[in-house]
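Bumping with the actual sequence this time:
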Amino acid sequence: MNEQLVLEELNENGVLVITFNRPSKKNAFTNESFLAARDAFRRANENNDVAVVVITGAGNDFTSGVDLASFGGNPDETPPFELMMDEIVALEKPLIAAAKGAAVGFGATALFHCDVVYVGESLKMRLPFVNLGLVPEAACSYLMQVALGTQIAAELLFTAEWINAERAVETGIARQSFPDEQLLDHAIRKAEEMAQWPVNSLKLTKRCLKQAHMKGIAAAREIEMQGMMALAGSPENVEAIMAFLEKRKPDFKNLQKPA
């Protein structure tokens, strides 16, 4: 099952392409998908033949985030999403994203853990947390402020607005946009430019770039998880999900209590 949900292809130049592979579901993640991705990132970190990692999505989309139809799990166990995030945060090698189409939820927050982001012209990105009665995830409440500045981060999180390729480049989410059909080839070529250099130099340079932010990432993940635990299953969250499934506008009136 892991090979089907997450594909791994290592080329002769040391570039590993990790592909989220549920194209019929816009690459939405189940718990099994998160565990498959966790394993892929762990293998990438441990494999001395891998110099640079590229993440992308099969078909027309990057990923639409969590598959709401499979949402849930054992509350006494660490969520598979968090296990995967542990491996992404621990990844020592350069991480490049090639994202097109839907980049929603984790499809958006994952981009802030990438060292370089390239997007396709079809990008439709969204951070859908407040509109679902939830809080941000994956330390994006911290990383967005680092990457974009406090006001842009706040605007994007508080409005849950849709972000196209032009806006992604304008705000600094992405380095550059390309026609969809050229996107992955460009990302791989750029990864190969990096992969020609000594892996230890790449790893230690990434450590230099990330070290000052590690405490902030850890603190953000902790408070975000507390917020998720407080709000998941709340009346607002249930109303938001039901409205999404029923394709109607949510009605939050008379549901909210002070957080």
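The tokens above came from a reply further down the thread. Residues 2-180 form a domain with the 2-enoyl-CoA Hydratase; Chain A, domain 1 fold (CATH 3.90.226.10).
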